[in-house]
Each structure stands twice: as structure tokens, then as C-alpha cells.
């Protein structure tokens, strides 16, 4: 199957690449790496002016109504440039989730605010074990009157918690022997009393993470997304989209690593000739190119399956996430070997991609997690027992 960008997608790709070069050059990226919030409101406003926050929001809610594939084209360029902004999770756990699972009233109230850049949403889902599975969600939400709730607990590893002003929180509203039952999703205003945000020091200095503590935080029943106790099904569904979009972002990073490594091999002179003439270096570059193309094919297929609402989309996304997670790590490792000492210094940009490869691999299940998902799928086909790992 061959995937070719449309004329509009080529224009979007070119515009995004030019925007990254002009508005988010390496000096800006490095500045944001040292900033506790990790993004520039001025840059966010410029993105709003281009209509990016509302790219997939239907026109009747103030967006541009473009496709999931169009979004992937944009996010790939953000991955290439390591754009420091809370865009990806806001697009998926904000615009996509509300459009797919919100009530009409919620869509009318929230989607225009997302499209205008006013509302920035980030997920607060996983807990101490760091795994994306229903049994790991233990934070409690207690009934408060007829329809309202009170949240009590802590969510670690919350991405962009300082940049976001709303949290998509998964909490347990009912105890059950089946961990997938009794989970409810809440959209929580970050300005509510009882929310405390603490920065975490993690490897990826451009994707900021935080501990977020909820101390008797009141949430109105109108902010429940989906059915009470029915949140896990929604999370599984939206996680498929998040993983597919992470694959697109990883592809952009892999492209940068590939191009930068080849260019270095052409221009780095050792013993009177470019190191790219050495067979060992040629083999490393060829292996990187193969990893890139395999990953691109898997990503394109996965995004297309998600766009078309294909029932096998979770399988395609699991394959793509496993490929991209492994290969992004492999390519950054290999690039550092080709670059030698300079590739491991703070002054070179390669370390940012090395770190992003690892944070993106682990987000919503690493390569091993998704191989387990594939094994579970094959096990089902053969009528065998299943593992504890979900995601299909």
C-alpha cells in the first residue's frame, strides 16, 4: 500500500516546517528546555492564528474540520523540530476525545475554547507503576450530592501540567473485581482549589512532567465525560489515537536524526577523507535508513486505519508503536556512535532526540508492551488465554 500526501497536505507540511524554523529555532528550544513551564504563550498564540489547535475540530465548533491524517502531517513536523508546546496531548485528549465522546453540550462549550487556544487539556491518567492499564488506576472520586464528585489522590508523570489549564482525570468511582469497571473520566479545571502541581526531573527536558495532587477537588457532574463507571473503554479508544500520533511525532524526529547523521558523515574528515566513505559508517547509515522506512510504513498504515475507523486500527497502532519505539531508540544510539564524542555533548542537539526517543517509547506503552498486545491478539485468534495487558 502506498501513501502519498495530497496537495493540501504538502502545503501544510511546508508551512509547518517553515514555522518551526522561524518561530521555534534551536535557541528557542534550548531556552524552553530550561523553563519550568516549557512553552511560550506567544508561540501558542501564533499557532492559534494558523488554526492548528482546531485542526480536527469540526467547523461548526470553530475548527477547520481537517482529518486525523492531516494532524499527523503537522505533528510529524513538530517532532522533527522538537516544538516545545503542549500541542499533541491537547489535540488528542482535548479535541479528539471531546469530539468523539462528549455530549453535544460539552462539545459546544469546550471545542471552541480548544480551537481558540483558550483551553489547554492534558491527561492525568497513569499512577505510581507508570503503566497504562486499568488495574493501575486507584485514585478515588467520591459522590458529592446527586451528581457531583470529589477527587482525592495524586497523579504522577502528568505531561505539561504547568502549561495546561484543564486535566482529563481518570478516577475510580466504584470498586469491582474487574479493574476495567468503575473508572470515570472527569474534565477538571486547573484553577480549582485543592490542586497542587510539583515539577519532576525527568530525562526529556522538553516534555515537562509533574506530580499533580488532588486534595478534595470538587468536580460538577456536567464535567463527567462519557458514562459514570464507563471511562476505561473511552481511554482505550483515545489511547489508540494518542499512540498513532506519537508515532507520527517520532517519525519526524527519526527523519532529523537520519539527515543530520548522513550530513555529518559526508563532512567529517578523518585521515584525509569523509568518514562516510568507511564501510562501517555506510552500514550504520544504511541500517538507520531501513529502520526509518519500516517505521514510516507502519506509522502511515496505522494513521490511515485510525482515520478510517477500521476495527483493526488498534492492531495497526500496536505494530507501529513497537516499530517506532524500537527504531527511534536504535537510530539515536547509532547516530551518537557515528558522531563520536561531539554527539554526546550538550552543545549538540542530538541529545534532545536521544531523550525524546525514550520518553516517546514509554508513553502509553513501550515497544515491549505493544508486542504483548500483539501476542494477546494472536493468542485470541488461536483461542488461548489472555494476558493482563490491555490496549486492544
Q: Remind me, CATH topology of the largest domain?
A: Butyryl-CoA Dehydrogenase, subunit A, domain 3
What do the pLDDT scores average to? 95
Count every helix, treating DSSP H or I runs of 4 or more residues as helices. Answer: 11
- State the helicity in percent bands: 40-55%
Would you state the CATH class of the largest domain?
Answer: Mainly Alpha
Shape type: globular
User: Superfamily at the CATH H level of the largest domain?
Assistant: Butyryl-CoA Dehydrogenase, subunit A, domain 3
Structure summary, number of beta strands: 10
How many strands, which pairing sense, and closed or not: the largest β-sheet? 4 strands, mixed
Strand order of the largest sheet: 1-4-5-8
Counting structural domains, the number is 3
Poorly predicted runs: 386-392
Helix/strand/pairing class, anyone?
Answer: alpha+beta
- Which radius of gyration do the C-alpha atoms yield? 21 Å
CATH architecture of the largest domain: Up-down Bundle
Structural write-up:
The relative contact order is 0.10. It contains 11 helices and 10 strands. It is of the alpha+beta class and 392 residues long. The strands form 3 sheets. It has a 4-stranded mixed beta sheet with strand order 1-4-5-8. It has a 4-stranded antiparallel beta sheet with strand order 2-3-7-6, with no helix packed on it. It has a two-stranded antiparallel sheet with strand order 9-10. The protein has helices spanning 7-23, 26-33, 41-49, 68-81, 87-101, 104-115, 231-267, 279-307, 313-339, 350-362, 367-381, and strands at 121-124, 140-144, 148-159, 166-172, 183-189, 195-200, 209-219, 224-225, 269-270, 273-274. Residues 386-392 have low confidence and may be disordered. Helix 4 (68-81) packs across helix 7. A hairpin with an 8-residue loop joins strand 6 (195-200) and strand 7. The protein has 3 domains: 7-119, Acyl-CoA dehydrogenase/oxidase, N-terminal domain (Butyryl-Coa Dehydrogenase, subunit A, domain 1, Orthogonal Bundle), CATH 1.10.540.10; 123-231, Beta Barrel (Butyryl-CoA Dehydrogenase, subunit A, domain 2), CATH 2.40.110; 233-381, Butyryl-CoA Dehydrogenase, subunit A, domain 3.
Amino acid at each position: 500500500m502506498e501513501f502519498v500526501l495530497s496537495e493540501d497536505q504538502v502545503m501544510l507540511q511546508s508551512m509547518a516546517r517553515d514555522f518551526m524554523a522561524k518561530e521555534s529555532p534551536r535557541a528557542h528550544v534550548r531556552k524552553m528546555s530550561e523553563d519550568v513551564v516549557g512553552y511560550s504563550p506567544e508561540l501558542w498564540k501564533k499557532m492559534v492564528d494558523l488554526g492548528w489547535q482546531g485542526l480536527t475540530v469540526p467547523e461548526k465548533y470553530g475548527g477547520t474540520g481537517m482529518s486525523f491524517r492531516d494532524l499527523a502531517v503537522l505533528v510529524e513536523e513538530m517532532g522533527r523540530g522538537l516544538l516545545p508546546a503542549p500541542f499533541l496531548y491537547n489535540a488528542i485528549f482535548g479535541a479528539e476525545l471531546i469530539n468523539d465522546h462528549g455530549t453535544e453540550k460539552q462539545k459546544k462549550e469546550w471545542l471552541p475554547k480548544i480551537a481558540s487556544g483558550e483551553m489547554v487539556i492534558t491527561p492525568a491518567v497513569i499512577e505510581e507503576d507508570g503503566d497504562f492499564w486499568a488495574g493501575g488506576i486507584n485514585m478515588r472520586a467520591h459522590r458529592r450530592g446527586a451528581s457531583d464528585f470529589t477527587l482525592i489522590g495524586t497523579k504522577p508523570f502528568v505531561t505539561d501540567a504547568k502549561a495546561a489549564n484543564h486535566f482529563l482525570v481518570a478516577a475510580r468511582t466504584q470498586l469491582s473485581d474487574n479493574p476495567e469497571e468503575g473508572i470515570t473520566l472527569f474534565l477538571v479545571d486547573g484553577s480549582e482549589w485543592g490542586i497542587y502541581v510539583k515539577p519532576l526531573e525527568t530525562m526529556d527536558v522538553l516534555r515537562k512532567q509533574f506530580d499533580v495532587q488532588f486534595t478534595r477537588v470538587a468536580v460538577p457532574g456536567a464535567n463527567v465525560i462519557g458514562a459514570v463507571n464507563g471511562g476505561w473503554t473511552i481511554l482505550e479508544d483515545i489511547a489508540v489515537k494518542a499512540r498513532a500520533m506519537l508515532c507520527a511525532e517520532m517519525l519526524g524526529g527519526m527523519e532529523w536524526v537520519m539527515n543530520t547523521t548522513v550530513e555529518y558523515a559526508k563532512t567529517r574528515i578523518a585521515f584525509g577523507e569523509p568518514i562516510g566513505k568507511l564501510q562501517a559508517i555506510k552500514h550504520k547509515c544504511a541500517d538507520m535508513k531501513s529502520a526509518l522506512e519500516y517505521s514510516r510504513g507502519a506509522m502511515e498504515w496505522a494513521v490511515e486505519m485510525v482515520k478510517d475507523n477500521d476495527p483493526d486500527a488498534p492492531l495497526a497502532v500496536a505494530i507501529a508503536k513497537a516499530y517506532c519505539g524500537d527504531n527511534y531508540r536504535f537510530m539515536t544510539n547509532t547516530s551518537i556512535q557515528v558522531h563520536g564524542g561531539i554527539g554526546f555533548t550538550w552543545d549538540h542537539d542530538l541529545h534532545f532526540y536521544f531523550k525524546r526517543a525514550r520518553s516517546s517509547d514509554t508513553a502509553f506503552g513501550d515497544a515491549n508492551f505493544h508486542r504483548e498486545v500483539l501476542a494477546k491478539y494472536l493468542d485470541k485468534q488461536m483461542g488461548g488465554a489472555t494476558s493482563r495487558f490491555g490496549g486492544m
